[in-house]
Write a sequence for this structure.
């Protein structure tokens, strides 16, 4: 199964995504991920959720090839709605969500991680938004939760990435460990949370969300509105077609 859930006796739900080759999710999979995370959090026996991936990287965003091989805008709209649903599921999960990030975390991956409560990363992990190179926008809302404001703008405009070590310096990543220690490191902090009274932790999650200075769901949907404009103008297709054909952004040699 591409998305699975395993449970420990201490109340940890481990949600694993496995979409070879790079965990670029088709539109339906984003909705599936939202459903799995929501179901895990709503289970009263769950004290904390770990979100992780198998394979070369944590998440490569949406499946652009699906968009470019599907007639009409169904796949595009599905991906936008699916990403919004998955990001919201992480944010609204009644219990803390720990993101265990290996390798690349780009595009939609940043949306998931930016809405998580705790981030543990492998020492080869890196994060970024290639959106402008794909003729799209989105997840600046979530990148802004990982890096300072001017760094976010620089990374966004240039489509550069930031390393796990840099995020550790900024304080958004809790720990950086070798890749083979990633799950155990995530489980270690999950166990610390799981030992607490889940009634108190669930109240704490709700309280922290309510005092959040940014409405992440509304902010992200506003970003998506600009993406729809770029699609209507034909700009996005130009960039996505170039990426599917060459694997490179428009203007790259």
């Amino acid at each position: 199964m591409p998305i699975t859930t395993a449970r420990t006796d201490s109340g940890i739900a481990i949600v694993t995504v496995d979409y070879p080759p790079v965990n670029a999710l088709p539109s339906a999979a984003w909705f599936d991920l939202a459903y799995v995370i929501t179901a895990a959090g709503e289970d009263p026996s769950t004290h904390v959720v770990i979100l992780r991936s198998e394979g070369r990287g944590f998440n490569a965003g949406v499946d652009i090839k699906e968009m470019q091989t599907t007639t009409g805008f169904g796949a595009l709209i599905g991906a936008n709605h699916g990403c919004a649903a998955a990001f919201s599921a992480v944010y609204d999960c009644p219990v803390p969500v720990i993101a265990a990030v290996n390798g690349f975390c780009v595009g939609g991956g940043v949306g998931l991680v930016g809405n998580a409560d705790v981030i543990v990363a492998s020492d080869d992990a890196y994060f970024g938004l290639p959106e402008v190179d794909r003729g799209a926008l989105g997840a600046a809302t979530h990148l802004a939760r990982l890096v300072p404001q001017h760094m976010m703008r620089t990374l966004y405009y240039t489509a550069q990435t930031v390393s796990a070590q840099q995020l550790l310096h900024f304080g958004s990543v809790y720990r950086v460990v070798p890749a083979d220690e990633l799950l155990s490191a995530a489980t270690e902090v999950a166990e610390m949370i799981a030992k607490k009274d889940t009634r108190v932790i669930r109240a704490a999650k709700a309280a922290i969300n309510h005092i959040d200075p940014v409405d992440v769901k509304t902010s992200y949907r506003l970003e998506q509105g600009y993406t729809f404009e770029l699609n209507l103008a034909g700009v996005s297709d130009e960039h996505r077609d170039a990426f599917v054909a060459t694997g490179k952004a428009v203007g790259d040699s």
Remarks:
- The radius of gyration is 17 Å.
